[in-house]
Amino acid sequence: MEGGGSLDAQIESLLNVEKQMRLNGDVSSTKKAAIDILQLCFERRDWKTLNDQIVVLSKRRGQLKQAVTAMVQQAMQYIDQTPDIETKIELIKTLNSVSAGKIYVEIERARLIKRLAKIKEEQGQIAEAADLMQEIAVETFGAMAKTEKIAFILEQVRLCLDRQDYVRAQILSRKISPRVFDADTKVKKPKEGESIVEEAPADIPSLPELKRIYYELMIRYYSHNNDYLEICRCYKSIYEIPSVKEDPAKWIPVLRKICWYLVLAPHDPMQSSLLNSTLDDKNLSEIPHFRSLLKQLITMEVIQWTGLWNTFKDEFENEKNMLGGALGDKAADDLKERVIEHNILVVSKYYARITVKRLAELLCLTVEEAEKHLSEMVVSKALVAKIDRPMGIVCFETTKDSNDILNSWATNLEKLLDLVEKSCHQIHKETMVHKAALQV
Asked: CA quadruple 147, 149, 152, 154: dihedral positive or negative?
């Protein structure tokens, strides 16, 4: 009790000094007096008084911005030295309430919220942690370091994914442009009139590491929708990170995933482009099994599903756990679907008309299944086809209008006349050579 009285007396004395300096507009002395009060409470381990004094000092009439900033920064150093979790939460909440709505301590508030959200997450309160993090819009903070902003937004995205709020996760992820990871990381000196950008704390990852975290989170998001092509593009971006590309132990698993997701992705121009660029990659020679898999997809030949599955079943089972866990049997079904689609496209290249029965034989399916897959591809505009069901014939030719027919006739006549002209020229040449030989 005597110690408490002594503390109150010392605080009262320092408060009078703080008031005098504040009224005189002495910034450095006001900051020192405010920090001394907090330090005094901390040394006595009187956490309740510390919280009370932070609130009192911040609410004093005409309190200087510099003094509030200094107080918040000083009190943040005490957070890790609190005796228990309740005291820590109380101190963070006090500092949060003091810094709320004050632009000059917005970065400190963001860091406080991040710490409080981490505590909530450790306690299993994922939804509360996600709600807390979403209160802060760090993209508007001019003085915050770029890497710290990105790390904060990525934490918001991760918590949304943890609570399975995929819509909000996508909205938050759009705040980060992928181009930012390839930008120059050097800190430029601010010009006159520009706000000074703070350096990021030591625990914030580097830009290449943040790039990897960003794409891993996007893989989690796209895995929810089974968007294989986007997942493949994410792995492609991870594959391009210098630290990954330099270490075979890192890039081989990533390249395997790129190959699997390329095979699983529906056929479209983007998929074809990625497929060809991956086949041109010299590193693919390290995993020849996958090169042969991709080669089959670009070769215009019918793939036998049973033969393919027997060859790659073990590889697929080994990779299944690494594909994100949620795929499992769905991925196997989708793989079969892609093989059927490839085979239908191959058939459409070689046949103008084919019976449904023969098509089903080539695809190793029943007539009903062949019709179903063909219809789905026509609906998705992957190819043009018409089925004459009474006759049981599939026609892959597109219907041409009169202009197209006339143009094709004109082109064919032009080619024919060119051939006649070349033939006449060759005959004339041979005749001349023969005549010359007779004269000799």
From this structure: negative
User: For residues 32 and 71, what is the distance between their CA atoms, to the nearest angstrom?
Assistant: 9
393-395 sheet: strands from edge to edge: 353-355, 393-395, 386-388
What tokens does 137 get?
């819009």
**Which spans in 101-174 are helix H?**
106-122, 126-134, 146-162, 166-173
Report residue 205 as tokens.
Answer: 């990852």
Q: What is the DSSP letter of 104?
A: G
State which H helix or E strand residue 307 sits in.
Answer: helix 305-320
Question: CB of 149 within 8 A of CB of 139?
Answer: yes
Identify the CA nearest to 22 among candidates 55, 64, 73, 78.
64
Q: Which helix (H) or strand (E) holds 125?
A: none
Q: Report the Cα 251 to chain-centroid distance in Å.
A: 18
C-alpha distances in angstroms, 84 versus 51, 79, 90, 98, 259? 15, 10, 10, 22, 50
Helix (H, G, I), strand (E, B) or coil at 216: helix
- Rg over alpha carbons for the chain, rounded to the nearest Å, is 35
Averaged over successive runs of 10 residues, the pLDDT of the chain (440 residues) comes to: 61 84 84 87 86 85 84 86 86 86 84 88 87 83 83 91 90 88 60 59 82 91 87 90 86 87 86 88 84 86 84 78 56 85 88 87 86 87 84 80 80 91 91 83
Supply 347's token pair.
């058939």
DSSP H helices in 351-401: 356-363, 367-379
Rounded CA separation 367/159 (Å): 48
Which residue(s) pair with 353 in the sheet?
395
